[in-house]
């Protein structure tokens, strides 16, 4: 046995259980999660766990992700516990690994983490963690359960992914949703485009002007302007953003009859989307939120049952 082998034997290797990134998952597995989510939604599947508790550990604000994970746990019979990071021993300098290891030692069966650093979980991989970790968003990198709930919503609408045209619009460069979604959607055979102000474009997908995108897309997927990640002020005013890059009422009216509007939310009304468009008949924004609960039920149960 080499020193490295011995270290691996002592520390249990680099594998962390749970769901950290969709990049590690096959298309088959992603499709299985989508179908399982819909089984939960339709009541075809029902599971209850006993004597299990899971913690949420959020270093960034959240309404949808944190509370739909909690709703999913309650639906599965799991006791949810919200950790207040500002009064935890993280404030006394305890590192993330030791905090999670502590949760494992005191009997938690999973931890749901949102963190401002891309791939925060890499620093956890060299230890002996056995507790499953569910990534609720890492910096600008990925938001795996948001991507999955988006896929559930798309599958529910169209019944397939192949050749569906999606244009992700807005603050692409600061968005973990854009980065995570584009990668998986391409793998699923979708045609992915991006649009928005030049200052927020990157190489996530091919650029297309918004006025063209609204006429050809099956899905207009809007993003929030993510002020909290900006290093400098946005170059244009919010009013100018809305007129030039927002889904105004007139742009929404030019979308295909069968096309839908998505947004991970929270929504900045009158900036990336007109107030009246948020709940129009094409909008699936609140359907996405509902699907988030079933998607998180699917992910948690598949991890606990060893299917993921
Ligand atoms: N979509 C999303 O992640 O929302 P929250 O930030 O409210 O969790």
What oligomeric arrangement do these chains adopt? single chain
User: What's the tally of helices?
Assistant: 10
Overall pLDDT: 94
Give a count of the beta strands, DSSP E runs of length 2 or more. 10
Q: Can you identify the CATH class of the largest domain?
A: Alpha Beta
**Biggest sheet features:** 5 strands, parallel
Spans of 5+ residues with little confidence (pLDDT < 50)? 1-13
Instruction: Please report which band the strand proportion falls in: under 5%, 5-15%, 15-25%, 25-35%, 35-45% or over 45%.
Output: 5-15%
What is the distance, rounded to the nearest whole angstrom, between the alpha carbons of the first and last residues?
30 Å
CATH architecture of the largest domain: 3-Layer(aba) Sandwich
Can you tell me about this structure?
This protein has helices at residues 3-11, 27-42, 64-75, 96-105, 144-158, 176-187, 210-216, 238-245, 249-253, 285-304; strands at 18-19, 53-58, 79-83, 111-115, 133-138, 165-169, 191-195, 206-207, 219-222, 260-262. With 308 residues, it is of the alpha/beta class. It folds into 2 domains: 3-142 and 290-304, Aspartate/ornithine carbamoyltransferase (Rossmann fold); 144-285, 3-Layer(aba) Sandwich (Rossmann fold), CATH 3.40.50. The strands form 2 sheets. It has a 5-stranded parallel beta sheet with strand order 1-5-4-2-3. Strands 8-7-6-9-10 form a 5-stranded parallel beta sheet, with helices on both faces. Strand 2, helix 3 (64-75) and strand 3 (79-83) form a beta-alpha-beta unit. Helix 5 (144-158) packs across helix 10. It is globular, with a radius of gyration of 20 Å.
């Amino acid at each position: 046995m080499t020193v490295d082998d011995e270290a691996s034997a002592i520390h249990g290797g680099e594998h962390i259980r749970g769901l950290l990134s969709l990049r590690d998952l096959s298309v088959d597995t992603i499709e299985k999660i989508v179908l399982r989510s819909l089984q939960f939604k339709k009541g075809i599947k029902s599971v209850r766990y006993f004597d299990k508790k899971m913690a949420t550990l959020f270093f960034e604000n959240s309404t949808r992700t944190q509370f739909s994970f909690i709703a999913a746990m309650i639906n599965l019979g799991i006791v949810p516990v919200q950790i207040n990071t500002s009064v935890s021993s993280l404030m006394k300098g305890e590192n993330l690994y030791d905090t999670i290891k502590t949760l494992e030692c005191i009997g938690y069966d999973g931890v749901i983490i949102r963190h401002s650093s891309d791939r925060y979980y890499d620093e956890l991989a060299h230890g002996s963690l056995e507790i499953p970790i569910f990534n609720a968003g890492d910096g600008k990198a990925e938001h795996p359960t948001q991507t999955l709930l988006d896929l559930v919503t798309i599958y529910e609408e169209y019944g397939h992914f192949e050749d569906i045209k999606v244009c992700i619009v807005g603050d692409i460069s600061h968005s973990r949703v854009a980065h995570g979604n584009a990668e998986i959607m391409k793998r699923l055979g979708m045609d992915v485009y991006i649009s928005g102000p030049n200052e927020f474009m990157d190489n996530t997908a091919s650029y297309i002007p918004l006025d063209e995108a609204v006429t050809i897309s099956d899905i207009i997927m809007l993003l929030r302007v993510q002020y909290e990640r900006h290093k400098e002020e946005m170059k244009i005013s919010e009013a100018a953003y809305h007129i030039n890059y927002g889904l105004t009422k007139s742009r929404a009216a030019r979308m295909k009859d069968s096309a839908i509007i998505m947004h991970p939310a929270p929504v900045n009304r009158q900036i990336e989307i007109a107030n009246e468009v948020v709940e129009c008949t094409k909008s699936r924004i609140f359907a996405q939120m509902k699907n988030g609960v079933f998607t998180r039920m699917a992910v948690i149960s598949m991890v606990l049952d060893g299917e993921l």
